[in-house]
């Protein structure tokens, strides 16, 4: 058996979640797939601010003897129509972050095999497993559960995630971007830095500076097309509090920074980034629309990339968002892509067939069924960033 010697356990209480912090942090340091969006800091902060009465902690930990070798940061969401519970769905706590993952130090197939055995034999009080934004070649696809006649599966194409390899020098990288891209960037950069009031590039990394820098970022964001959109940072007080706590705590670990592009006394573009091991994550970027002709977002992104070359980081992840395949900056400046999929596993039954039909066809059924019931049934956590 592939998972021989492994044991999966359930963490279902806040106290046990808190007690897992040190082991979780150590696992990230040793992991073969470390990600900021799988750290204890990110997952716990997301749970603290965005869990609802319909969510139940369902963190699965995998051990070999007493040694922790895997953490699956799951929750169980109860999807309801009115007061009637229709589905219990196993899903990531913070699937709206970016490419949520199970943290592992061993062969992925072994860890996933242990997790699915637990869900198949030991804890069966679920109707659906929903794993969002997984790599298209995910080891999950090789699990025996996909051949089990008691389950049906659905693979849904998700988004294309772009990244830049930071190996080498900025000059070497720039030569690979194509003549037109370099020419356009040089022209825009000269244009914006020739503004009468000048332009300065600022980086905020100290915990004490994060709150004020975040306020400045939100002012830029809420002046433009992102104002009050679900994925914007400043859409609600809860979202602002989440980002403030996450940024401050991450800064204490040297895992976050806020960048601002400023002309005179006006902030014209801003970016939030996170760092984990050898990867930098471009979490959010925004610009002031009155400066759109200068493409300040493009300039700021390029300046950040330039700074990252020659450091300990090996990759800059632009993260993923629906429609990114049409984003000219990400297409022109990236050196690689990762295709993602959403994996769904259902227990086979007539009841489940009906529930899945409603879940999948919510938008088509809006004009036939009560909107309130459908909304509750298909509720998701806050949307991802742009």
Helix-strand blueprint:
Elements: E1 6-11, H1 14-19, H2 21-30, H3 40-50, E2 55-64, E3 67-81, E4 84-92, E5 103-104, H4 108-122, E6 128-135, E7 151-165, H5 170-175, H6 179-193, E8 200-204, H7 207-221, H8 237-252, E9 256-263, E10 266-276, E11 279-287, H9 296-308, E12 315-320, H10 328-333, E13 336-347, H11 350-360, H12 362-365, H13 371-377
Parallel strand pairs: 4-6, 11-12
Antiparallel strand pairs: 1-2, 2-3, 3-4, 3-5, 6-13, 7-12, 7-13, 8-9, 9-10, 10-11
Helix pairs in contact: 3-8, 7-8
How would you describe what is shown here?
It is a single chain. By secondary structure, the protein is an alpha+beta fold. The chain has 2 domains: 6-160 and 339-377, 3-Layer(aba) Sandwich (Aminopeptidase); 167-313, Aminopeptidase. Helices cover 35% and strands 30% of the residues. The protein has 13 helices and 13 strands. Strands 1, 2, 3, 4, 5, 6, 7, 8, 9, 10, 11, 12 and 13 form a 13-stranded mixed β-sheet that branches. Helix 3 (40-50) runs antiparallel to helix 8 and helix 7 runs antiparallel to helix 8. The longest helix has 16 residues, at 237-252. The model is unreliable at 369-381 (pLDDT under 50).
